[in-house]
Design brief:
By secondary structure, the chain is mainly α. The chain has helices spanning about 1-20, 35-40, 50-70, 75-100, 105-115; strands at about 25-30, 45-50. About 0% of the residues are buried. InterPro entries: LapA_dom.
Length: about 120
């Protein structure tokens, strides 16, 4: 299974390098449109290769997806945390009740009762 994963990653790397090499031409990215930039007298732009725009979009989309899912699953994590605390509380109560029950018993009998 490990070799299949390595083979997949190698093929993916070759494909990504091929895409990068085929899209090396520069494009101008601007923060604002020309009309809005002249109105605000502020323009921020940068020239980058097309493959960086492509890969940056993929990374940005993945980050947004991960954050969205993390926020969406908050209720499930909170419920699991609540249940875990409840289980700990009940286990503590059980140990306390068993200790009270076994208080007057012989130690060997108390151990046998706990194991059953």
């Amino acid at each position: 299974m490990r070799y299949i994963r390595y083979a997949f990653l190698a093929v993916l790397a070759v494909v990504l390098v091929a895409i990068a090499m085929a899209n090396r031409s520069l494009v101008e990215l601007q923060l604002l449109t020309d009309e809005l930039a002249s109105l605000l007298r502020f323009q921020l732009g940068i020239s980058v290769p097309v493959f960086l725009v492509f890969f940056g979009g993929i990374v940005f989309g993945l980050l947004i997806g991960f954050i969205w899912e993390w926020l969406r699953e908050h209720k499930h994590r909170a419920e699991a945390r609540h249940r875990k605390a409840q289980v700990r509380k009940l286990e503590h109560e059980l140990r306390k009740t068993q200790a009270e029950r076994d208080q007057g018993k012989d130690e060997v009998l108390a151990i046998l009762d706990r194991s059953a």
